[in-house]
Every structure is written in C-alpha cells, then in structure tokens.
Design a protein that fits this description.
Elements lengths: L13 H12 L3 H8 L3 H8 L9 H15 L3 H13 L22 H24 L3 H13 L14 E2 L6 E2 L29 E7 L3 E6 L5 E7 L4 E6 L3 E5 L5 E5 L2 E3 L6 E2 L2 E6 L5 E3 L2
Antiparallel strand pairs: 1-2, 3-6, 3-8, 4-5, 4-7, 7-11, 8-9, 10-11, 11-12
Helix pairs in contact: 2-3, 4-5
Length: 289
C-alpha cells in the first residue's frame, strides 16, 4: 500500500487573511466598514490585495494596520509583509522593448514619380493639340486681345451750376451752406471696477494625542486636509475653511482646540471608540450627520 503525499497549503495573501478574519467575526463588508467609519470600497480593496486603489503607501499601511487590529490579527506583521511586497522590483514590461525602425527605401519612389510625370506631360500635349485644332479659336483669341488693348473712355463729369444771388451789377455764386443738425457725442463705456474678494476665514484645529489614533479632516469643499494614523504624544495642527469635518478612531485619546480654545467633543458624536463631529464657523462642535 503506497502512501499519498499531502502537500502543505499555500501561504495565504494579506487580503485572504483579512477576509478570513472578518468571516470568523461574523461581519459583512458593510458592517466592518461602518464600525471603522470607512468606505466599503476600502475594505474590499484590502481583502482583494488591490492596494494601489488606496493611494500612497502611508495610507495603505494605516488602513491595513487598523483593519487587522480590529479583526484581532497581527497588524504590524501584515504591515511588514506589505512593505516587503512593495520593496520587490516590478517584473519587466516586455512591451516596452525598443524595436528597430525600418526606413523606407527612397529608390522605390522613383518609378511612381516618373510614371506620374510622363502622364502629366502626355495630358498637356493632348490638350494643346485639341485646343489648336478648334475652328475660330485663333480669331477669337485675337479679338479678345485687341478689345483689351483699347483704352476705356472716362465718364464725363457734369458740373451742376450754383444759383446766382444779388443784383445784375454784382452777381456772385451762392455760398453752399453746411447742413445743420444736432451734434452726436460718442460715449465710451467705462468698465465697472473689479470686485474685491474677501479671503475666506480659516479655522485652526489643534489635536493633542495621548495615544495612537486614526485621524481624518476635511474642509467645507470636501478637500482632504489630513488622512493618516497619528502617533501617541504628537500634536497635529490643521487649518482649513470651515465647517471642518473630523473623524477620530480613538476619541478618548485626543484633546481638541479650536483657534487656541479647548473644546469638548459632543457626547452624541462618540460612537464606540471613535467620534465624528463638525467644527462650525463659530468654533463650536456638533455631531456630524
């Protein structure tokens, strides 16, 4: 009886380990995204190893470590695996190999050009013969040349006499009077002065962290001002056009100051460990909808 060799299972990728951890926790993609305050597309990209869709490497490492720690996996180990994967040189693209350019032989164009020149000469000769053989062609041409050589008489200009005024002993032509009318003054349109735009007010947001926390900050136009994992003991100073939308992964470890004044995070803006709130134009904080 022969023994059957059992091969060891292939090493799973980062995305497969994350998907297995989520399935063990009994969570769907939407539920995991809601818990982490992330877009479901971020979870799908992580579990499919499509890290290029998440932007720069610093964003990928932040999402990867946060999601792995949330599932109870070794976040630091997965981040190191991702860094080692990115450090490998990419496979060469064989489509970019330069090819030898084949130049056309100019001698091949001589025969077509000679044939075209002979055809043009033959066509001109036939036209010349046919034009000279038509009856009356020479007489018509001579008459046309003679007519064009005769000078054209200039039209006669008749001067209209001016009416005479005064007595019979002193006759003088009447002076032409200039027509009178209302003078029209041209008005030049003056462009209005350019409007002076007041620069938009900027709100200064200061975050002091006693522990590591995920931080996202967006301004009133939706522009991303901060999107990363802030380390413990760091201070993040951010300026932007209010209202500012803020997402914290570890709200208890973050102290908030608005324009130099300390602010408390509203209780209704805290969801588990995280918090989502809005910094209004007046500097107050309110729960983000």
């Amino acid at each position: 009886m022969s023994e059957t060799a059992v091969s060891a299972p292939a090493a799973r990728s980062i995305g497969e380990r994350l998907r297995a951890g989520r399935e063990r926790s009994g969570l769907s993609v939407a539920a995991a995204a809601e818990k982490l305050h992330l877009d479901p597309k971020v979870i799908e990209a992580l579990e499919s190893d499509r890290f290029s869709e998440l932007g720069a490497s610093v964003y990928v490492r932040g999402h990867l470590r946060r999601y792995a720690d949330f599932l109870g996996e070794a976040g630091l180990e997965m981040v190191n695996a991702y860094s080692a994967r990115e450090a490998r040189p990419p496979s060469p693209d064989l489509t970019q190999i330069p090819h030898v350019e084949h130049r056309a032989d100019p001698r091949r164009l001589i025969s077509p050009l000679l044939g075209l020149g002979c055809a043009l000469v033959l066509a001109l000769a036939i036209w010349w013969v046919l034009a000279g053989s038509r009856p009356g062609a020479g007489a018509a041409t001579a008459q046309t040349a003679a007519a064009s050589a005769q000078p054209v008489p200039a039209p006669a200009i008749q001067a209209s006499p001016l009416p005479l005024t005064g007595t019979s002993s002193n006759l003088a032509p009447a002076t032409a009077q200039k027509p009178t009318g209302t003078a029209v003054t041209a008005v030049t349109a003056v462009p209005p002065p350019p409007e002076e735009r007041t620069p938009a007010r900027q709100t200064r947001l200061r975050l002091e962290l006693t522990s590591e926390s995920w931080v996202e900050v967006y301004d009133s136009r939706g522009e991303r001002l901060f999107y990363d994992v802030a380390s413990a003991g760091s201070v993040q100073s951010i300026e932007g056009r209010p209202p500012l939308r803020v997402v914290l992964g570890n709200a208890a470890a973050v102290a908030v100051q608005i324009d130099g004044q300390a602010r408390e995070i509203p209780a209704n803006a805290v969801d588990g460990d995280g918090a989502r709130f809005v910094v209004n134009r007046s500097g107050s904080l309110s729960r983000a909808r």
